[in-house]
Amino acid sequence: MNEETPVDDQTGEPHLLVSLFPVALLLFLLIVNVIVYKDDATGGSNQLALLISGVVAAALGIFVYKIEYKKIERQIIKSISVALQASIILLVVGALIGTWIISGVVPTMIYYGLLLISPAVFLPVACVVCSIVALATGSSWSTTGTVGIALIGIGQTLGIPLGMVAGAIISGAYFGDKMSPLSDTTNLAAAMAETDVFTHIRHMMYTTGPAIILAVIGFSALGFFYGQGTVNQDDINAVLTVIDSNFSIGIHLFLVPLAVLFMVYYRIPALPALLIGAVLGAIFALIFQTELIASMAADGPSIRSYYQTIITTAYGGFVIETDNELINTLFNRGGMASMLSTVWLILMAMIFSGAMEGTGMLQRIAKSILKAVRGVGSLVGATLVSCLFMNMTAGDQYLAILVPGRMFKEAYRKYRLHPKNLSRTIEDSGTVTSVLVPWNSGGAYNSGVLGVATLTYLPFCFFNILSPIVSAFLAGFDLTIERLDDEEED
């Protein structure tokens, strides 16, 4: 190591220990925040932890490695631009939640869900339903932001811990997303590894299949313990009565979420599809919930008051006061304003990742992981760890697919492994672990939409936890790892 500046003599890059310092500082601050603020850590303290760690990384680059500030700033801006779409989607989903509640869409979904779903099978059913919806639409975010909202309400009414409910929703949504040819992450992983998307999906069945089967078994076991004797039918009847007395309930309201799912299925981008869904919610509210809107309006029924009520709900959330505290908790939510802390969290995560990448520290850590590879098993293991590390430091699942995909492509060729092994591995970790990191766009989005802290649902995201474990297990025993034959290698 150079005595004047801590750089690697062979590459001239930042030294590994220096590169790890901002990461270690971030993890330390995040642990402190969890201890001090508990579930409220994402309300501001984690954002500041990311900002402080990013400033430290930038300062090391400027004062130790003499990197121009403008270069680091450009990379930070580039990182933020990656997260802009996710931030805008979050704000639109906030408006969608508000208009879907006032239109009666969410209350209707909860109403019929309480009538049809038994508490003992709710968790596995929630997982399977989300799997089907995400498989058909190719979008985990659209699934949790639509069907997931109603399932959270049903689970809360049934008295099932919200962490378990969110874990079942997320497990199903990410399984369906991962296995859908319509998914952007699925196509991205296949493209990065230079393999056909359907070849990629078929190869994922060896790891994804066992993971989702074990997850459903786990949710069935939880449902057996938490679905027996925890529900008072009188409480459910009380909730149904309050919903029926405040909202106009009917199956016609399912047309709104079906329209959104239809648009996503036919490859209309998520942002315009969700925006149209929010507008449809507002239109359905004006048509079917006139009595509710009139009761909420300050100056009685009028065009002005109807407009004001809808717009206020879209940006500020739905607010209702009933004698049932559970109903108030279920429905007093949504609005763009409710997503601002989550958007703030994503932006701060992008500042940290931009500073780390702009100073070369992120690349230095990634190369150190690659140097540890000694065989096929360790290569797959290093890929899985790198994807998780990118989710923790870069704050975005797309980067967790792109960077390891580029970094390990030649290594997989060196070991004469078929590209579908690489595409499967980066999906087994890069896609599914993003939702487990509170400051990652995936974790921040799902936490904000479902209203459940990331660390609360993390232990119950069985599929997301099992997917990389199953992948590492199979690679360790050289199972389902396919080599290139001479013709394919040429």
Report on the architecture of this protein:
The chain has helices at 16-37, 45-64, 69-102, 105-116, 122-137, 140-158, 162-179, 184-193, 197-226, 233-246, 255-265, 270-288, 290-296, 303-316, 325-331, 340-358, 361-371, 376-393, 397-414, 419-431, 441-450, 454-457, 462-476, 486-489. It is an all-alpha fold and 490 residues long. Helix 3 (69-102) packs parallel to helix 21 and helix 18 packs antiparallel against helix 23. It has a domain at 85-339. The chain contains 24 helices and no strands.
The low-confidence runs, each spanning 5 or more residues with pLDDT under 50, are: none
Strand fraction band? under 5%
Shape annotation: globular
Order of secondary-structure elements: HHHHHHHHHHHHHHHHHHHHHHHH
Total helical segments: 24
Give a count of the beta strands, DSSP E runs of length 2 or more: 0
Q: What portion of residues is helical? A: over 70%
